[in-house]
Design goal:
Layout lengths: L13 E5 L14 E5 L1 H4 L3 H13 L7 H9 L5 H11 L3 E3 L2 E3 L4 H20 L7 E7 L8 H13 L21 E6 L8 E7 L3 E9 L1 E3 L7 E3 L2
Antiparallel strand pairs: 1-2, 3-4, 5-8, 6-7, 7-8, 9-10
């Protein structure tokens, strides 16, 4: 079987956890999902896992189990490897009234959610995301510079995909089990018939919407008629 990652032609010789094991408290292994992965993509996002987990916990606490997971999974790693994780989190931070605001490395988030989205698609379909899909992400809980047009679009997307997928948009269910840690819903026509939306929820409050848009090109004989890119 091929590796789970979009476009990878290598065989899946190892198992990749989606989300990573570090997101779940010890003793909750029944909640772990795995997909086949090549060696490269098994470790492709490993440097981002704890960084993303720390940021999600800090932007979710004290809700649900975010504080527990931070203390048990993130805090012990802050001093490891010459304070590497602590330095990563502090990069770009600044003082605010009553504390510190931590900047977010969106590139790390994008890499993490790219891999997570590919894993969820593979788990639900037993097939890679086709190469004619582009993935982008909306991080609803992260603070950014005000932009009325963008904010309106993101709010609309947030509200539209806030319910379970409609029957005809039930793309597939990877069967996440632990709603107090992580759940997801996948909206899209089955068998890759159109664009796909994945709604991730961490600790019940940190929401990320992954937009898997199918790219199209125009037919040379009739530019008004789009055709799927392959």
């Amino acid at each position: 079987m091929k590796c789970y990652f979009q476009g990878c032609v290598e065989k899946g010789t190892t198992k990749e956890h989606i989300p990573p094991r570090s997101f779940f408290p010890d003793g909750e292994k029944t909640n772990l999902l795995t997909v086949k992965s090549c060696e490269k993509h098994n470790g492709a996002k490993s440097t981002n896992d704890l960084y993303v987990l720390a940021q999600i916990c800090m932007n979710s606490a004290p809700s649900n189990r975010a504080r527990e997971v931070f203390l048990n999974k993130v805090a012990p790693q802050l001093s490891y490897n010459n304070d590497a994780l602590r330095k990563m989190l502090l990069e770009g931070s600044y003082q605010v009234d009553g504390g510190v605001a931590y900047a977010v490395n969106i590139e790390r988030f994008d890499e993490f959610f790219m891999a997570l989205s590919c894993g969820l698609i593979f788990k639900s379909q037993q097939a890679q995301l086709p190469s004619d899909y582009h993935i982008s992400h909306i991080y609803h809980r992260l603070v950014h510079e005000p932009d009325e047009q963008r904010d309106a679009i993101e709010t609309g997307i947030d509200e539209f995909y806030d319910e379970e997928p409609l029957d005809f948009m039930a793309f597939g269910n990877p069967k996440t089990h632990n709603e107090r840690i992580y759940t997801c819903e996948i909206h899209g026509l089955p068998k890759f018939q159109g664009s796909i939306t994945i709604v991730h929820r961490f600790f019940g409050v940190f929401k990320v919407t992954s937009m898997l848009s199918r790219l199209v090109s125009f037919n040379n004989d009739d530019p008004s008629q789009p055709t799927s890119q392959h």
